[in-house]
């Protein structure tokens, strides 16, 4: 991809994110910093798209000459019928968070899971082979993460969910990729003392409900690495209490930055300026 391929005839690289709600997204500040660091003229804008308006929004992306967009809650599934291609990862996860527009041909990707796994490996557990992993939650975020983790040769993945059926269905779908099992929250305590990595994918503990934790931290072994996808707050109650016990902890900021970095690489073909992106997000949260 050359710079001239990326830019519209007016000389700008157009990028953005669609979601509902979208006002508090940190993606614009992160990607604007990335464009500056890469010396690319362009804009990354937040676009509030309500449910039922996704088809028109996607047509608008093409008409306006956007090179790429991110897709966030609640549109990650709804966009799929309007795309021309889906890459293998997005297809398996069944959700799209990144769209690349090649002269009107739209391809959907999912960078959430690979972004998370890259962050986990860089910041907390460099080698996931043989690890016993427990994932809390079985929603959209969990799907991306469990799929990406299953490709890392883990020892086992247990998915614990309030609605156990959903955890079992997800485990069944990918059982040929890894030893994956679904359990209920009631079964969870009996497994917790023998888990290498515990990952919270639920929204429990997210701003503004920061006094909540998805699991009783007293049940977690201090040998377990505790990871939370939430990055607002940077330190959730789960992470703060686990750290106090002596656990290694890993927050969600790295996943957010890396999912954006992979998206930017799909759009531009250039290595993402990850440090500049992370710093921009941190500065906006200070
Ligand atoms: P996301 O895309 O963020 O994963 P989602 O698809 O709505 O959002 O999934 C939310 C997940 O968090 C689900 O696993 C949900 O559990 P259920 O399947 O039982 O609904 C879980 N979750 C949300 N709020 C929760 C709560 N208060 N306690 C326990 N689990 C919760």
Automatic annotation (TrEMBL):
Its EC number is 1.1.1.25. Transmembrane segments: none annotated. Shikimate binds at residues 25-27, 72, 97, 112, 231, 259. InterPro entries: Aminoacid_DH-like_N_sf (IPR046346), NAD(P)-bd_dom_sf (IPR036291), SDH_C (IPR041121), Shikimate_DH (IPR011342), Shikimate_DH-bd_N (IPR013708), Shikimate_DH_fam (IPR022893), Shikm_DH/Glu-tRNA_Rdtase (IPR006151). NADP(+) binds at residues 88, 137-141, 161-166, 229, 252. SUPFAM superfamilies: Aminoacid dehydrogenase-like, N-terminal domain (SSF53223), NAD(P)-binding Rossmann-fold domains (SSF51735). It catalyses: shikimate + NADP(+) = 3-dehydroshikimate + NADPH + H(+). CDD domains: NAD_bind_Shikimate_DH (cd01065). Keywords: Amino-acid biosynthesis, Aromatic amino acid biosynthesis, NADP, Oxidoreductase. The active site is at residue 76. It is an enzyme of class 1 (oxidoreductase). Residues 121-203 form the Quinate/shikimate 5-dehydrogenase/glutamyl-tRNA reductase domain. It holds the Pfam family Shikimate_DH. Gene3D superfamilies: Leucine Dehydrogenase, chain A, domain 1, NAD(P)-binding Rossmann-like Domain. Belongs to the shikimate dehydrogenase family. Homodimer. This is Shikimate dehydrogenase (NADP(+)). It comes from Paenibacillus dokdonensis.
């Amino acid at each position: 991809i050359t710079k001239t391929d990326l830019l519209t005839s007016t000389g700008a690289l157009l990028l953005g994110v669609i979601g509902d709600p979208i006002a508090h997204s940190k993606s614009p500040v992160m990607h604007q910093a990335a464009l500056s660091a890469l010396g690319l003229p362009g804009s990354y804008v937040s676009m509030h798209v309500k449910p039922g308006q996704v088809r028109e929004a996607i047509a608008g992306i093409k008409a306006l000459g956007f090179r790429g967009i991110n897709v966030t809650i609640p549109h990650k599934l709804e966009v799929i019928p309007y795309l021309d291609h889906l890459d293998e990862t997005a297809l398996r996860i069944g959700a799209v968070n990144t769209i690349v527009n090649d002269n009107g041909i739209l391809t959907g990707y999912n960078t959430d899971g690979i972004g998370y796994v890259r962050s986990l490996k860089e910041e907390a557990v460099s080698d996931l082979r043989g690890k016993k992993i427990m994932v809390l939650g079985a929603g959209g975020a969990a799907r991306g993460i469990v799929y990406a983790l299953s490709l890392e040769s883990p020892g086992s993945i247990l998915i614990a969910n309030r609605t156990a059926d959903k955890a079992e269905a997800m485990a069944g779908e990918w059982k040929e990729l890894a030893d994956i099992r679904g359990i209920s929250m009631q079964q969870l305590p009996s497994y917790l003392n023998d888990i290498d990595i515990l990952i919270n994918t639920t929204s429990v503990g997210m701003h503004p409900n920061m006094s909540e934790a998805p699991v009783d931290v007293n049940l977690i072994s201090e040998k377990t690495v505790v990871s939370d996808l939430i990055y607002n707050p940077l330190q959730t109650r789960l992470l703060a209490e686990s750290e106090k016990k002596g656990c290694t902890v890993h927050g969600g900021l790295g996943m957010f930055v890396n999912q954006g970095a992979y998206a930017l690489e799909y759009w531009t073909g250039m290595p993402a300026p990850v440090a500049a992106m992370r710093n921009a997000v941190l500065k906006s949260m200070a």
